[in-house]
Sequence to fold (273 residues):
Amino acid sequence: MIKIAVYGKGGIGKSTTVSNVAAVFASQGLRVMQIGCDPKADSTVLLRHGEKVETVLDLVRTRKENFTLEEMVKEGFAGVCCVEAGGPSPGLGCAGRGIIAALEILEKKGAYEKYRPDVVIYDVLGDVVCGGFSMPMRRGYADKVFVITSGENMAIHAAANIAMAVQNFKNRGYAGLGGLILNRRDVPREEEKVSELADDFQTAVIGTLSHSSQVALAEEQQKTLMECYPESEMAEEYRALAVQMYCICGGVLENENDAVRDKYMNGQTQEDV
Fold:
C-alpha cells in the first residue's frame, strides 16, 4: 500500500488536484482511498458529484462509535473510497485533534483491512502545520509528503512552512518530502520562485499544472476534470503528475511513461526528489 500526503494552503487547488490524481489512479485499476483532513470536509465532493460524505467526527458526535465502516466510507467516481475527517463545531475544540481522532477511528474499525487500498491519499490543510495537521506525515501514515503551491507569496510561505515541518520530522523516521507541485496562477516569476523554494529544501518541482478554465468548468458540473474532459491536455497533466507521485513512492503504473520512470530510477534517487 502506497500512502501519500498532499499539503497546501487553503484555496491553492489542493483538493481539486488530489481528486483528479485519485481518479487517475483508479482508472489504472488501483484501489484508492482519499481521506480529507480539512474541517471544511469538501475534499471528496467532486468525486461524489457534489454529494458530501458524513464526516467521521460528525458520526462520533451523534453516534459515539455505534456506526459502521459503510457509513464512514462512501464510494466516489471510478470506485474511489471517500472519507472526510471533519472538524469540531465552530468555536469548540481543535480541528487538528479531530484529524488525530478520525485517523485513529479508521484504523480501529479496520478500514484499511476491509477496503485494502493500493493507494491512500491524505488531503491535508497546510496553513498551520501543528498537532493533528501534521499527523498524516507522522507515525507511518504517509510514505511521502507532496506540497502544492503557486508563485503567490502566501502560497510560497505556507509551502516553506510545510517543507520545514517535514525536515524537522526527518530524523524520527517519518514521511520524507516527495517534492513540490506547481499549480499555476500565472503570476510574475512563478516558476523561478517555486524552483528557488525547491532548491532551498533540496527537493524538486515534480509536476506543473496549467491554470486551465476546464478545471473550473468541471467543478461547475461538480465533477473532476478526469471525468468531464478525459481527453484534454489538462487531463494529460494530471496523468503525468499521478505517474510522478506514484513512482516517487516506489510504485510503477502499467502505462507509465518510460522517460518519467528513467528520470527517477536512473540517477535521480528518492532523496534527490
